[in-house]
Amino acid sequence: MNLLEAMKERHAVRNFTDEPLSREQIETLSHAIAKLNAAHGLDIQLIHDADDALGGCPTHYGRFAGVHNLIALIGADDAMAPEVLDERVGYAGEVLALTAVSLGLDTSWVVLHEADKHEGAWTLGAAQRMPAAIVLGHGARPGRAHRSKPAEELGVIAPGGSVNDYADAPQWFRDGIEAVMLAPSALGKQPVRFTLLDDARTVKAEALDGVQAHICLGIDKLHFELGAGTGNFEWAE
């Protein structure tokens, strides 16, 4: 299963069995984490086979049970723009979530309160922050599909170009938005917008007002790339 296929199979799961991760699953995830840390300047850490991989921290939303494995999405803030870290961990974290699904695992995003006061589950440096994490393992029951914003709200067309409305947008743009519709988001609000600019090739992605909006933006940019194909468009600077 590749990441595009995993994206279509992924549904949030919050209750897990005690079945451990296999050696192959741990090695594959560890290798992916090392690559993403190097590429994005992060300090993502894999916690596995723990009694409580949440480290005793309360969760921002949702009840979780049987969490023995967790990917801690950790990095240092940009002094000028702290939201940059949120977007980076959103993008890199979703790569790992989809990788886990491709390995036959279930996942869910989680935001933890008091992540710096955990019970030794991960290492958090003095200048570091953990905006979110991903719990993973073997689900006690299957996840369910979630509702999404309409495509026309997630993908909009800039006026003045050769494309008049969403229905006339290039197929790759609509494929990208359909992939965004499958993405997880805090409280299901999807506080993002993708605008096809007037050259019909450049896409502007932006976070709107909402909970964990820049984490969602990073997640959704990955989904858009997987759906649209990176050779078909360019991100606006």
Question: Would you spell out the secondary-structure blueprint of this structure?
Answer:
Elements: H1 3-9, H2 23-40, E1 45-47, E2 70-76, H3 83-102, E3 106-110, E4 128-137, H4 151-154, E5 155-157, H5 171-181, E6 192-196, E7 202-207, H6 213-228, E8 234-235
Parallel strand pairs: 5-6, 7-8
Antiparallel strand pairs: 1-2, 2-4, 3-4, 6-7
What can you see in these coordinates?
The protein has helices at residues 3-9, 23-40, 83-102, 151-154, 171-181, 213-228, and strands spanning 45-47, 70-76, 106-110, 128-137, 155-157, 192-196, 202-207, 234-235. With 237 residues, it is an alpha/beta fold. It has 2 domains: 3-137, NADH Oxidase (3-Layer(aba) Sandwich); 151-235, 3-Layer(aba) Sandwich (NADH Oxidase), CATH 3.40.109. A 4-stranded antiparallel β-sheet has the order 1-2-4-3. A 4-stranded mixed β-sheet has the order 5-6-7-8. Strand 7 (202-207), helix 6 and strand 8 form a beta-alpha-beta unit. The longest helix has 20 residues, at 83-102. The protein is globular. Pfam families: TM1586_NiRdase (PF14512). This is Nitroreductase.
